Amino acid sequence: MADFDPPFAWDGERRVPTADEIQSGIGCGPFSLPLWNWLLWSLQSEIGHVITFNGLTPDNGDMEQLRKAIQAQIDASTGGGDPSTYLTLLQASSRLPIFPEVQNANGHFGVITPATGQVRVPAGVNFLHRGISPYATVQTDLATDASKTYHLRWNKTDGFSLKDLSSGAYNPSTLAEANAAFDSSFDDMLVARVVTNSSNVPTITNLVNKDRMAMQALITGTNGRDVGQNGARFDFDQAINWARTPKDFNFSLATIGANNINTFVPDFSIGAKTTGTPAPTAFDVNRYRLSQTVMYDYSNALVMQFAARA
Question: N or C: less crowded end of the chain, CB within 10 Å?
Fold first, then answer.
């Protein structure tokens, strides 16, 4: 009987197994009819409910109804389709192109130094890996050595660890600490920069980890040189402190000019901060800050509108 409607012994005498029977099974001797009835009734009732709940009509000639009912439930929950095309949680955690995201307002872990020679990741900070796997920190204390520069990193295999920039294993190409090669990737998060002095006292720069990061800033130039004259220049500084180097940034300038007695069209150039007139060069932006000198002839003041994304 495969239609389970009604289930076997639905109107017969039934009893559940005793504790001894559950533990040791049914012993030799006369078999209990009520127990037999209950065993088959319970199985057929459960299976029959799955079949009818998923819209199938019980059929004694079809011995594949339970599988079809389960498949119908899967299709109803997922919208149908070929199950081989479904993306599992394990697959998603290695395929989704989503950067790590710390789920608080400031986007970083609030790493501190509780004592000389120690760095602490606090407990209870929630973050997402690949946009789908949730994690929460437990307090983690890591030891430092004097006169070192470290990157505090996280991956799901090693957890939190300090990476020495002078280590050939971590930095075989002896890249500069701010090089974009050390930025957070999908599976390896740059959490903070840690610099220790000769007394092994750490200075920590916490870095923001979000899947999408953007900022706008209005920056007033400082340290004016040759103000109002030919070659007038100003310094611009803006903290960023992201775990990834900005890949998309732009700026515009507002200038107040004066003393252009020769009415020449003012020259303009940007450059790394220097005591002399900056030579034209690429914008000096990394994951930590914008640091730039801008020359604009005859300016009395310069204001920069700066925008960046990562």
Answer: N
